[in-house]
Amino acid sequence: MSPAFGAMEVEHYSKGVLLEPFVHQVGGHSCVLRFNDKTICKPLIQREHQFYETLPTEMRKFTPQYEGVVSVSFEEDEDGNLCLIAYPLNGDHDNLENLDNSDCEPKNKLLRWTNKKTMLLENEKISKEWVRQHRKEEKMKSHKLEEEFEWLKKSEVLYYTVEKKGNVSSQFKHHNPWSMKCHQQQLQRMKENAKHRNQYKFILLENLTSRYEVPCVLDLKMGTRQHGDDASEEKKANQIRKCQQSTSAVIGVRVCGMQVYQAGTGQLMFMNKYHGRKLSVQGFKEALYQFFHNGKYLRRELFESVIKKLTELKSVLEKQESYRFYSSSLLIIYDGKERQEVAVDSDPEDLEDLSEESSDESAGAYAYKPTASTVDVRMIDFAHTTCKYYGEDSVVHEGQDTGYVFGLQNLIDIIKEIRDESSE
């Protein structure tokens, strides 16, 4: 529960869903919010909404699952704490104009949106006094967090020590400075517009990090061109400059954000887009190496899976006629939680199926079994995507998105280089 979510939680949960910052957002400028454990939401942009509703079947495994549209309002409690509340839409999701509170469903229908904590609040099993006390404690934490944030946001690469006590995954709540930055900016924008508008359309998407206990996330800006066809001359020039001054122009990909858990030191490492823009091609390669290294050893068992998925994605995009994914990002996600190590002199049964390829001398006198650790590869952010099937676009492109495919191939080649060099 964040400091903004105090006693009013009891009141508003009966009508809508309280949105929280999505702490695993590592890049982008659009605010991403946590709707529930498996769902996030972000401001609806018509072009992106159209993409999700019409995307080719073969691309669905490489994009987040689209789960509909909600109405989001900006509200304050009696202490001036700012909250974002999501309400359901009735009827056709394409008819989203003139939203107001009458679009809310009855309380009993909303229970399916809530988690156990919410239901406890609804049933008044947690007293308002407890909520007020919890809000006070969280508010005190928030002042400290804001002070830390002012310092953290000035750093392009930072390490945040995770406290030894408690579960690592439970301590992710406020650690990511980029997600907090985007959340604060979104609140400010909505507050400034509150007099004129207080109903916003947000789309619901699959939370790609939900299956991982300690998500390690790499956000890559893909393609040699970032500006959309509808960009102003100023925006176009700015985006061209960013590409020319980064690895985007050379290899069609650049780091837009990163979050990695360092098991060796118990720290979280964050890298933001400003640092990513400054990297040379060699620096980009080193950043990739760092993403797959947990501070104790290189996660080599992940390479084949990520290479396979990137190659499959490349094959799918090569067949997409007319699509251009300008300013789109590619996420690579895996679980940073350490696997259980097994001593090399253990019982033979304990060592069954050990992967020699995954063992590493830096692990000392231990080898380990790769668990069912999966790597996810997904495309996100389609606000500037275009396709001839959209109909209303003035510019129509033919063939594949060569800039994106070029970036994918270079990404595959660099990961292969890291894999091969690490096995020598």
Task: Explain what you see.
This protein has a domain at 14-92 and 176-338 and 370-421: Inositol polyphosphate kinase (D-amino Acid Aminotransferase, Chain A, domain 1, 2-Layer Sandwich). A hairpin with a 4-residue loop joins strand 9 (253-262) and strand 10 (267-272). The chain is built from 12 helices and 16 strands. It is an alpha+beta fold. Strands 1-2-3-7-4-5 form a 6-stranded antiparallel β-barrel. The longest helix has 25 residues, at 128-152.
Task: Give a brief rundown of this model.
This protein has 424 residues and is α+β, with helices and mostly antiparallel strands. The protein has twelve helices and 16 strands. It has a domain at 14-92 and 176-338 and 370-421: Inositol polyphosphate kinase (D-amino Acid Aminotransferase, Chain A, domain 1), CATH 3.30.470.
